[in-house]
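Q: Can someone sanity-check these two? First one:
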Amino acid sequence: MKKDIEELIKRKANNIYEKYYSNNPCFSLNEINNKAYFVNKICFILKKTLITPKRKRYLDKNYILSANDTFGADSNIFFSPNFEESLKYLSPLSALGFFEEIYLDDVNGIYANEHLIYQENNGLIPYFTIKELSCLYKNFALYIEDNSKSLIETGWPDYNFTDSVWLFYKLAPNYPIEIPIYIKDFSKLKNPSSDPYFFLKKYFLNKTNQFKKCKCKTVSLSKIFSYKELGFIEDMRYKFLFLKKTILNEINQYLFLETTDKDVWFKNCAKIVFSNFSQKDLQIITSIEKKYDEIKLFNNILNGGLNGLLENIFFLYEECKFKKMTLEKNTMNSILEGSKFNYQRKFRSYYQLAQFVEDNYENKRFNKMKNKLNNELNKIEKEIINNKQFMSDTLDFIKKEYLNVEYLLKQKYYPFVDNLIKSFEKGESFGICIPFLYQLPTPSQKRITPLKLPPDTKWEHITIQFLDYDKVKIQAPNKFNKVVNFRKMGFENQKNGKPNKQWELFYNLARYRGDLSWTITTYRKKVDSHPLSTPKIRKQIQRLSESLKAYFNINEPPFYDYVKYEAYKTKFFLLPDPLNTKNLCDVTETF
């Protein structure tokens, strides 16, 4: 392998010499500076700048380059800083001088600067004016709309967005479970041109791929998720895509207008985002997004999820408020336009900056404009840093206020959420703070007819026995005997017509004869699976208690004091389904 690389370097050095040096009128040979002398110089530069197949420096194997810097296949060999690239803009002698005196002393620093411009030009990182961002996001909103069906069904768009790779990997996916195999294996693709951006140009910058349906093989990501997480993703896709479209509408309709207060816009977007999720939702989303970390494109997670949406909101808010990137890009364009190099039209290479040094007038002009730009950018950066506290406080406030309200309530009364939250905090009724809520339709209540028991009947006089999972027999004094089902008692799930969670608890409670206690030794054998080990048991008992009081029309609680008895114990006699009676040791295994 080493011999092959040496041959490759020597062959490339000779090609560079013949192309740029041999016929150059400003370049003359003598006995000292002969062809072999310059070819050796070029060979040394190429050795110092060569990137090996394992993304390491040829002469410094300990320096490992990340996938964020090099986007070619692992089998590729290329050069960075790129000496041949510099010869497109610099004279042959200047290029040699720069590499020997400056670039080779900081080869990794120049490498980073070189690729920064490449990434900006190829759309891997954002580099836009506000006007360009306005056009970009309008096109992206149309792209998302056109791919909606696929994004809901599979989480992956039908075709790639070629206007900006950065915006594609940040927002285009929608929590995919399957992705194209070429995305997963992009670092293994053969690269005949040894171009570190070969993959990018083939799949994302090629305009023929726009509107081209993807019919390639896919690879499943389902193994990295639990069944619960997969179900959550399937349920959330439509909701999250709708949220994404809502934010894109806020961006395109309001953000780019000069009259829009950017701080108010930021607050509104934060409210829209966090009013769509409960605290539990955010916990699950956080867990899911961490697992997507295993699949990356250009060192970025491929879920197009909540973090990507928030990053876009932050980025656009800061850029539209402070215009830092817009100032930099407009200034750099004006530097080139007003120079003798204006035929180059725009900056595509790091070495275009070095070409100004070759001309005294251009160098003075360039440095003057660059220094002025740096001073202005420093001022803007300080403003951005000072504004971070406002952003942080706003997000903390929005999270605190909006995550504590039931989502369905927030969704129904969204315009009035702020006042609604304040009324909750003050303990005031809706009518006092928000009289307009009376104008809205009230939620339908479960209709139950209270049981007509003999006068003065107490809980201790009642016996309830399950006949099967749906029905119970109720006995009371004066030969009172009645069979009722869960619906008549008010234990119906309004969504599916089946017994609700309270009825399930009531049924299981009967299997314990109405006594859930820590002190019974048979329970101790299965403590971990015992119902009392469930944190929600207290709330469930409270709800069951209220439902029983409403149906039996008895104001007293149906359970004894838990603190006194150290158990959840019914005052009435509660018997299990005779066909499903088990030993208590066996019963605990079902919980």
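And here is the second, same format, sequence then tokens:
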Amino acid sequence: MDPAHRLDPGHRAEPAYQQPQYPVEPSWRADPAHSGPDAPPHRAEPGPPLPSRYALLDRGYRPEPSPPAEPRYAEPSPPAEPRYAEPSPPVESRYALLDGGGYRPEPAYQPAAEPAYRPPAGPPAVVERGYPARIEWRPQSPDTEAERAAGMLRRELGSPRALAFANPKGGVHKTTATVLAAATIGSVRGRGVLAWDDNELRGTLGLRAGSARHARTIRHLIADLAHIEIREGEELLASLDDYLRHAADGSYDVLAGEESPRFAQRLDQFTVKRVLELLRRTHDVVCVDTGNNVESPNWRTVMQAADQLVVTTVPREDAAFSADWMLDLLHEVGMGELADNAVTLISCPTPGRSPLQDDLERHFATRTRAVAVVPYDPALETGSSIDYHQLRPETRQAWLRAASVMLEPFAR
């Protein structure tokens, strides 16, 4: 076929034409020297100062002479690239006009459907600038939760706060919770935290917390209370320190209870108020391990003076029933606000998860301000002295979250 016919818009390819096996010389270079004997010579168009150097291949295109007086209407073609024929289909190949019918453009590229995004199992991908490759909600990591809880515990509390740990039933981890709450808060704040064993019937807090550098208890403090409470500042701290025990790491102090049952008669309402007032003057947080007798003046005085009630229980029906009954009693005696703002602390005494735990969490979430769960830890199973730093990391983090929930309403 004569190459000149390929530039003729009216030319139709012969049916018998077969595309040659050798590469076809591109005819779009419209060079007059290679266009053949019958190719019309290219003539420069008069008028524009920069006429096009190449013949246009548009289908049916006929250049109109530009007016000689107004050359600005003649649009110069690109200096190096010719204009191609505008294809009818929007995706037609630009080389379709170079073949008189034998060439068929390849199908237009269709991008494959992007598969649904599946979040990676590991940390989110990071692009060059360090930003997340995909913005999505992710649960907080344990480190982030621990930092937030620790930041809450470091904040100012406005005034000294008393936390009462209570449940009329024994064996529900009141003493353990009192010690670990004081140890957790003290390890973050560094000072000003005390655990008081106010159980009038031979409490064991003094045996499980603090170093017994002396044998003094609440009984000895009350005997000298009149001489101590009149002191101020450093003198008061030094005088009171003679009756306190200290944790091994110095994070909190301990006021041990008296082991003699006859001493319970001396803990009347007025005496308990004086002791609490003295401890508020020297410490920022006072954690009180209450007794089991809800009818005693001692127990009710602590409830009335408490800033935060912590209801301790274990995932058992009898322990939960006793805690529920205590909340009802507080409503009956005019301390319903204290009960509604309480924190329920569920301690797990065994490694496995109790089937009753979910029900208890839902139930006490409707009765108290918050519910916190602390896991089982083998370091607490023996019932001996409690060392906060011997706990598993996940146990310490759980206590950190629980303690922050207790003090959250007072943080400034």
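A (reply): Looked at the second one. The first strand starts at residue 161 and ends at 166. The longest helix spans residues 174-189.
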